[in-house]
UniProtKB/TrEMBL annotation:
It comes from Chryseobacterium populi. Residues 53-191 form the Glycosyl hydrolases family 2 sugar binding domain. This is Beta-galactosidase. Residues 295-514 form the Glycoside hydrolase family 2 catalytic domain. GO terms for molecular function: beta-galactosidase activity; carbohydrate binding. Monomer. Belongs to the glycosyl hydrolase 2 family.
Length: 951
């Protein structure tokens, strides 16, 4: 009998499942930019206009070879008489609808269409024309469909809107203006009695509330809500009665001890909503959500679950070069992963709502999101804006990652819309204004854009929380990570500092199908990213990663008395460092004449993670072996609780003096050295080499590097990059086996040239400076077009600026010569040209042979050839004479914005000031030209073997 009862219950459950009626989806277009469907297409102007063709949907029609290109700022560039290409596209598509859908409520859904969109089904208008490019809209077309038969969809899309405010808000903007159905189109079939949408509020104390919006309720009499955790375990449920004609019901109950959602702990739950009629399921929907509480404590800060947080954020356009704003979940996933790789915790959706998959990934991987209504610098009208706010909020309301609604950008705020967001958002998230003028704080938060370091200090002393939604504009190589360390310290240490959002994530480069598929960033308008169009990582990417590392380590050098203890600050908000993992490695670097770059690991070890609570300080104990000083470098890697690398720090242990001694000892051949002179030159000579030094200036004029008379054109140095070089005296003399030329200048500068018997040309120089200087050191000339590659021991692999030294680590790096400039085609990174930090030795492979240069002293910058950080009417910052420089100081880099150009870079903070120099600088350089005979291959220029495994 008991067995029969179980079978009966099982049959009843199966019967309910068979009769369950949930939403059904049928895609009319493809699902994303990688999976498209072909529709019929006609366009009114530009390429392929005036005749019917085929087009892939979703897409931007320009990227399919139709129409013409416009950049949103063209109206500024070309003046009042400029007119955008007001193209109109006509789409046609035939589709079948299942017989089983008859009697259901069927909507056609457009996730995004640029811009005015008129929809017809079988010749009948589906509804009023939709205006607004970035929003999901739908029409109930149940009465217009032919079930079980062929149906015709006709869509008319106008690139420019008939509504002036829509054009002002969306089209007159600093980004590409494109046309087409760029997000999916599909049919959704629901039971006649259904749940149209839900709004969830789930607080940190476990309170769950939901507004459930109902449609067509005639016979249903019960609404049930069930909550499930990540393991699909039921954690709470409730149900209420439904009356005929009900359109809105609210359910509220408590979940005990929920796992909370934050960007560090993205714990998600699932809510299942069921409409029932006498225990029979009529309609069922599901939503993912997270328990979390957002608070703005005016005059204090932004709190998540009772903890103050600060935004390490960036602005992101929805973008891919080949497909424009038609993207896919793989691109969205890549972008979220890259943002998190930079140790950021927040993203601003500039300047419109993103596609849905991006927000889902932010929910699951953990990013705080500012979801923004479009309005670049002008606003929507109230009439249009109300509809678009409703579409935006009802689509995105249940994403726990969305913690702010942004009502437009930089003047694109219609204040009449501020209260509209709360009408659809049960949790009543804060609304902000992303503005660019002071005095426009809203809801206790000032979001003013592009304040400098010192005006930021003043704002932080005011009454409002300060969270700039744009700062450190990253056009070309400026901004981004440049000066960020100073800004972050300001916000981290200020009560009212809430962090901010760098402009911007990616260079908005578009593959021009009308120009042989070249990538176009519209001159200086769109190369604003810290990654390239295809997400190529720039130097700022790595600087940001170190600066924003939640494991904050400021140790600069390893001293002789280092005891393995490293001070650390925990800049997480919800994570104890004992949840992270730490590993050290002791290393030996590859050598200049090795065929490889990189290092060899001598020994490694893991350490006990320190118990350091969020926002507190403590120490890491490495427990290194006693013989650690015999290695050349120390590496430390921190890994987060999810197994992702946070950052890897490296410190050089062996001094440059010891490294240069080892190089000298490896050169086994010796030759007698002499000096001859004529009217204009001293010539240092050995059996293999000779170097000509000018008698009037002391500079290297020419050289011969072997017995065959082979020449190299490395010359015209050392030119001091500051001050004049007026010769006081020059003389030559012998020093043991070596020959020396001593050069003195009137202002105290000194040069000593020394040719050593092993073939090394040694240069000792000395100079004094008092004052502020962009750079300091010496330069030489060498033809750039002779360069093949560079190999060096030092920080790398990217170049640096005085105010962006972060993100580069010690290693033996190698880089083929390229002519890349940041933010411009061909986006080959790392760039070859630039300033390189803390170089111990550099080897240039050239068409004339190898040039190897080392230094005895620490902290030498090397400048390779001519390059600029920002490109405008003139390149900036200015460069020293010569094109290969050995420097003790390098310049800072500002941003493209006018108030920071040339003499105002220092407004970005202490790191961005000129070099304040006061003293005498001395440096020794060692030059070897050509390939040395290193003797037995097994002994080729190697450090002695170090065995530390026995300790």
């Amino acid at each position: 009998m008991r067995c029969f009862s179980k079978i009966f219950v099982l049959l009843c459950l199966c019967s309910q499942l068979l009769h369950s009626q949930s939403k059904e989806i049928q895609f009319l277009s493809g699902t994303d930019s990688e999976h498209t469907k072909e529709w019929d297409f006609w366009i009114s102007g530009g390429r392929k206009s005036g005749s019917w063709n085929k087009i892939q949907v979703p897409s931007q029609w320009e990227q399919q070879g139709f129409g013409s290109y416009n950049y949103g700022r063209d109206y500024v560039t070309y003046g009042k008489n400029f007119k955008f290409n007001d193209e109109v596209g006509l789409f046609k598509h035939k589709f079948l609808v299942p017989d089983s859908w008859e009697g259901k409520s069927v909507n056609i859904v457009f996730e995004g269409s640029m811009t005015d969109t008129e929809v017809k089904i079988n010749g009948q208008l589906a509804g009023e024309i939709h205006q607004g490019a970035f929003y999901e809209f739908k029409y109930d077309i149940s009465d217009k469909l032919k079930f079980g038969k062929e149906n015709i969809l006709e869509v008319k899309v106008s690139k420019m809107s008939a509504d002036k405010s829509v054009n002002n808000a969306e089209r007159l903007a600093d980004y590409w203006v494109l046309g087409g159905i760029f997000r999916p189109v599909y049919l959704e079939a629901n039971p006649k009695e259904n749940i149209s949408w839900t709004a969830i509020e789930a607080k940190a104390d476990g309170t769950f509330r939901s507004n459930i919006h109902l449609k067509g309720c005639q016979t249903v009499n019960n609404l049930k809500v069930e909550l499930f955790d990540a393991k699909n375990i039921l954690v709470g449920e409730s149900q209420i009665r439904i009356q005929k004609g009900d359109t809105l019901k609210q359910i509220q109950f408590l979940v005990k001890n929920p796992k909370l959602w934050t960007a560090e702990t993205p714990n998600l739950y699932k809510a299942k909503f069921s409409l029932n009629k006498n225990r029979k399921n009529i309609c069922q929907t599901e939503e993912k959500f997270g328990f979390r509480t957002i608070e703005i404590r005016k005059g204090d800060g932004i709190y998540i679950n009772g903890t103050k947080i600060k935004m390490k954020g960036i602005n992101r356009h929805v973008w891919w070069p080949e497909t424009g704003r038609a993207v896919n979940k793989n691109i969205d996933l890549m972008d979220v992963q890259l943002i998190k790789e930079m140790n950021m915790n927040a993203v601003r959706c500039s300047h419109y709502p993103p596609n849905k998959s991006f927000l889902k990934i932010c929910d699951s991987l953990g990013l705080y999101v500012l979801d923004e209504l479009a309005g670049w610098q002008k606003k929507y009208s109230t009439e249009v804006g109300k509809k678009l706010v409703m579409e935006m909020v009802t689509r995105d309301v249940n994403h726990p990652s969305v913690i702010f609604w942004s009502n437009g950008n930089e003047g694109g705020h219609n204040f009449d819309l501020d209260t509209e967001f709360g009408k659809y958002d049960l949790s009543n998230r804060p609304v902000i204004h992303a503005h660019h003028k002071p005095g426009n704080a809203f809801n206790g938060i000032d979001c003013n854009h592009y304040e400098d370091y010192y005006s930021t200090q003043k704002i932080l002393e005011g009454e409002n929380i300060y969270m700039p939604t744009e700062f450190l504009h990253a056009q070309d190589d400026g901004g981004g990570g440049t000066s960020l360390a100073d800004y972050w310290e300001l916000h981290w240490n200020s009560k009212k500092g809430a962090g901010g959002f760098i402009w911007a994530f990616a260079d908005e480069g578009l593959v021009r199908t009308d120009l042989s598929n070249q990538i176009d960033v519209n001159a200086i308008n769109a190369p604003d990213g810290v990654v390239g169009p295809h997400r190529e990582k720039e130097g700022s990417f790595y600087a940001i990663r170190e600066i924003y590392s939640p494991v904050k380590i400021d140790l600069k050098t390893i001293s002789n008395d280092f005891n393995g203890v490293i001070s650390v600050e925990n800049q997480y908000y919800f994570t104890n460092l004992n949840e992270c993992q730490f590993e050290w490695k002791l290393m030996k670097f590859k050598t200049p004449y090795s065929s490889e770059s990189g290092f060899d690991v001598l020994q490694s070890g893991k350490l006990q993670s320190p118990n350091i609570k969020p926002t507190e300080k403590g120490n890491i104990h490495l427990n290194l072996p006693q013989s650690w000083k015999k290695s050349q470098a120390l590496l430390l890697t921190a890994t987060d609780p999810f197994g992702k690398e946070i950052y890897t720090w490296t410190w050089k242990i062996t001094s440059n003096e010891k490294i240069s001694e080892q190089f000298s000892k490896s050169l086994i051949k010796e030759f007698p050295v002499s000096v001859v002179e004529n009217d204009s030159l001293f010539i240092l000579k050995s059996d293999e080499k000779e170097f000509s030094i000018g008698k009037k200036d002391g500079l290297l004029k020419s050289m011969v590097i072997d017995k065959k008379g082979k020449k190299m054109t490395f010359r015209n140095g050392p030119v001091f990059v500051n001050g004049k070089m007026e010769l006081s005296s020059i003389k030559s003399f012998a020093e043991a086996k070596n020959q020396v030329i001593e050069v003195l200048y009137n202002d105290g500068k000194k040069i000593n040239w020394k040719l050593n018997s092993n073939g090394i040309l040694e240069l000792n120089y000395e100079y004094s400076l008092v004052g502020d200087y962009p750079f300091a050191g010496v330069s030489f000339d060498y033809p750039e077009n002779y360069i093949i590659s560079a190999k060096w021991l030092g920080k790398g692999p990217y170049h640096v600026w005085k105010n962006r030294l972060q993100g580069q680590t010690y290693n033996v790096w190698q880089n083929l010569k390229n002519s890349s400039r940041t933010g411009s085609s061909p986006w080959i990174y790392p760039e070859f040209k630039g300033y390189y930090d803390d170089v111990a030795w550099l080897q240039l492979d050239t068409a004339e042979g190898k040039i190897t240069i080392g230094t005895k002293e620490e902290k030498m910058f090397v400048r390779l050839f001519d390059f600029y950080g920002i490109y405008g009417a003139e390149g900036y910052p200015k460069l020293a004479a010569g094109n290969i420089s050995f420097l003790d100081a390098i310049p800072p880099l500002g941003t493209v914005l006018a108030f920071n150009i040339n003499d105002k870079t220092e407004s970005l903070g202490p790191e961005s000031e000129q070099n304040h120099l006061n003293g005498t600088f001395k440096r020794t350089l060692y030059f070897y030209f050509g390939l040395p005979d290193l003797g037995d291959e097994k002994k080729q220029f190697t450090m002695p073997e170090v065995n530390i495994l026995t300790d």
